[in-house]
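Same chain as my last thread, 131 residues:
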Amino acid sequence: MRGNTYLAFDFGTRRIGVAVGQDVSRTASALDTVHVRNGHPDWDALAALIEQWAPERLVLGKPVTTDGTDHPLAAAIDRFARRLEGRFGIPVLFVDETLSTYAAERDPDSSRSGVDAVAARVILESWFLEN
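reply #2:
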């Protein structure tokens, strides 16, 4: 039985971490870090990853604040989600990413894969746990 492939993103204003996983094993792996320049993601690098992995769904981390107000990055994350879905025609799902970078910084894999990609892996693993 073949599962659905997912790509996950840890959005940042300078870098976007990317991870891949599939829903049968509910596992994820850190992939890469895509650079953002002058507020614009490297769409060619993102397109190459999407073409290579052919995901059925995209998962995007979105931090939730304890007081219910929007996180400072919320508008940029929403804009990125709309652009992802518009460019690639793949549904974008959200998951709370609060503390994903904190967890990634303490993960031994971050020295090899990079903190942003490991944070994307944490985001995707969180999505699998919640769904």
